[in-house]
Amino acid sequence: MANIKFFSGEQIPLEMHKVRIVQKLSLPPVEKRLEAITEAGNNTFLLKNRDVFMDMLTDSGVNAMSDRQQSAMLVADDSYAGSETFTRLESKLHEIFGMDFFLPAHQGRACENIISQALVKPGTIVPMNYHFTTTKSHIVLNGGTVEELIADTGLEVTSSNPFKGNIDIEKLNELIEKNGADKIAFVRMEAGTNLIGGQPFSLQNLSEVRSLCDKYGLMLILDASLLSDNLYFLKEREEKCRSMSIREITKELARLCDIVYFSARKLGSARGGGICIRSKAVYEKMRELVTLYEGFLTYGGMSVREMEALTVGLEETMDEEMINQGPQFISYMVDELAKKGIPVVTPAGGLGCHINAMEFVSHIPQSQYPAGALAAALYIAGGIRGMERGTMSEQRNPDGSEVLSNMELLRLAMPRRVFTLSQVKYAIDRIAWLYENRMLIEGLAFVDEPKLLRFFFGRLKPISDWQQKLASKFRQDFGESL
Ligand SMILES: Cc1ncc(COP(=O)(O)O)c(C=O)c1O
Fold first, then answer.
1. d(Cα 387, Cα 378) in Å, to the nearest integer?
2. pTM, rounded to two decimals
3. Looking at the domain assignment, is residue 1 inside a domain?
């Protein structure tokens, strides 16, 4: 997306790609949408894709691939062991991150399983800027605990802080001093911090974390799943990075870390994952786990076609014009919503547009899942599927009490290069209508609640007939329109 001025003065992102393969969409009428969300137990994960007009659930594995990625898939070298495809991927990762060892895995959480099994011992602590759902579950499963040390400003919903993903260095130092370095399994930094609105950390912050890790002899692990957005923001927002190329920034980030792992469903717009490791001893510790859980060391659960697409996708991540499409579309959506007074997370981050449900539906208590209720309401209003990122995404305490989330967000992911600007405008329109009618939205209650990762497949019901009222109001206001 180039920096192109419009004669009209309008400021809109202009795509530096053209669309050559399309998928037909349909938008079911509001009555059908009401039926569909009821059948899905008010959980947007359980909706059928055929009932969804704009799938903004996630950017995971659904980013548009480039023509070069597609064509690379045709030349894949299919063999169980030692394929050329793997060698190409391994050398691309070596070139980009400069680490000597690479272990493939079928997706990001598989990397987390391997890292946690290898490095988390019962009673140990993993400090991090912020947790991700699957990361925390794997650490806890191995007897560890997660300490989130995000700087206080990171949790301010509206802010002008360019690096809300920064860890609080003082708190990190205190935690290590208080517990002793031998109690710390490793320090984890997450690029483009997912659960707080796709917010980046600064290179300066990562360097300071490195210094502390050096002081106490700790390992620093980077979750690079959302690295491409973080790279874009570093280049845009951090003085030191302005004169550096994306490739140089990437190298510098990796130089500060001992391990870089990623979900290739996000990084590289493909499907798969992997762990880049600096130390041979750590590599050897993890290697057996890959063969046990993922597959042989030269595919790790990935198809060769996906590995070829990933190799090209990683190279394309080094191209600023490729990685700026998502953040620029998101920024457009966030700014337009903010202009209408709709509460959104600012500054615009990566991954998607995040609506602040705590404020949007401030009349719904956290125990009734405001962000989950808003997700169901937006599906009814527009056939748009978002994802709850709030209390529903937390796990109950061992005594059964709720963990009330710091933030109640409805995440509307922006899969890269997938939606057109008119579709984004449609989403803005339906959100604006919903905001006008927000008092019609009420809460949800679980009817079927899994113990682990309940947001994936738990089922809920509305606490009243509010959804029927919302659908009738839609009909009244929009007439025959879908
Ligand atoms: C920051 C982060 N880490 C890890 C994961 C897990 O990756 P996967 O979905 O490929 O298992 C994700 C997925 O969304 C993520 O955003």
1. 10
2. 0.94
3. no
**Angstrom distance (rounded) from CA 204 to CA 26:** 46
Q: Are residues 214 and 269 in the same domain?
A: yes
144: left (phi over 0), alpha (psi -120 to 50) or beta: beta
Identify the three-state secondary structure at position 105.
Answer: strand
411 Cβ closer than 6 Å to some ligand 1 atom: no
Please report, for the domain that includes residue 417, its CATH number: 3.90.1150.10
pLDDT, tens digit (0-9, with 9 covering 90-100), for 294-305: 999 999 999 999
Kindly state if the Cβ of 241 falls inside 6 Å of ligand 1: no
Total domains present in the chain:
2
Give the pLDDT confidence of 393-435 residue by residue, as tens digits.
Answer: 998 998 999 999 988 999 999 999 999 999 999 999 999 999 9
Flag whether 17 is in a domain.
no
Shared-domain flag, residues 168 and 237 = yes
Question: For this structure, is 102 an active site residue?
Answer: no
* Whether 69 contacts 313, CB under 8 Å: yes
Rounded to 5 degrees, φ, ψ at 189 are: -115, 135
Q: How far is the CA of 64 from the centre of ligand 1 (A)?
A: 18
Indicate whether 301 and 359 sit together in one domain.
Answer: no
> Active site includes 101?
no
Judged by DSSP in three states, 206 sits in helix
Model confidence at 453, pLDDT cuts 50, 70, 90, reads confident
Category of 268 on φ-ψ map: left (φ > 0), alpha (ψ -120 to 50) or beta: left
CA 265 to ligand 1 centroid distance, Å: 8
User: For residue 252, what is the domain's CATH number?
Assistant: 3.40.640.10
Report if residue 186 sits inside a domain: yes
Domain limits at 427?
Answer: 30-59+322-478
Which residue, of 318, 351, 378, is where some domain finishes?
318
- Atom 6 of ligand 1, nearest CA residue: 108
Boundary residue ending a domain (275, 300, 318): 318
- Whether 226 is in the pocket of ligand 1, judged by its Cβ within 6 Å, is yes
Verify whether ligand 1 is closer than 6 Å to residue 225 (CB atom). yes
Is 223 annotated as catalytic? Answer: yes
